[in-house]
Task: structure prediction
Amino acid sequence: MRTLRRGDSGDDVRELQGALKRAGWYFYIVDGNFGFVTETAVKAFQRSSGLVVDGVAGPQTLGALGLDESVPSTPSAAEPTGNRKIISLHIGLNQVDPSQYGGWDGKLNGCENDARTMVGIAEAEGFDEIHTMFTRQATSSAVLGFIGEAAQRLKPGDLFVCTYAGHGGQLPNLNAQDDPEESGSDSTWVLWNEQLRDDLLWESWLKFAPGTNIVIISDSCHSGSVARLYLNDTSSRSYQSRASEYQKIAATTKKSFYTDLTFSRPGPASYPY
Result:
């Protein structure tokens, strides 16, 4: 197989994406297009394997993935390809409404800029629709309404990306009998007018047709539990092992994402994130 890098496309890229998915580093559609998402997955795999981290799938990376010239290049029949639609929503709050939070304004300096960075990534990747909600626009009804509309419009194989930058909180769990929380609390996004519980977010994700791809990036406190993984038999050793594995993958991917940005971010150059 030839060396592959960002900008390449075709069956070889599909095979690379399939190998990365089997290895646990690629979670999106096998579409044969080597873009930012595939490059990030390659870098994360290279870092975990002790290889040079350059985002290029050369002989060493392909060999570590079990791909070489003797492996035929065939598209994956299990994954939809082509004609997919990608819609994204990028939320950033630099403060909240003090009248709804007992006088606390939750002032932050860079969350709107973080959301604009996500917009830049979406534009670079050629998303079909890119939407934003900044500070006052980011009410619970607006966020849930937009997600519900996207769920109606997207079909299996399409992609919905939702990013959030702002405060994260916790509230007492109101549904402990049906949805026991390890912490005893619901995790939240702290929106302009109120905290949005993870239970309501999960109800929104479940409105999407089976087979629709959903990517959630939450840059907030309690980000791991606000978009937690639902797995059956949470007391089993298998659950604990899988949950630990996914947490490690998420941490590595998040670190490589911020390290490997290739375009200028808005805001002061000294701002760390």
In short: Confidence is low (pLDDT under 50) at residues 69-82, 229-236, 263-273.
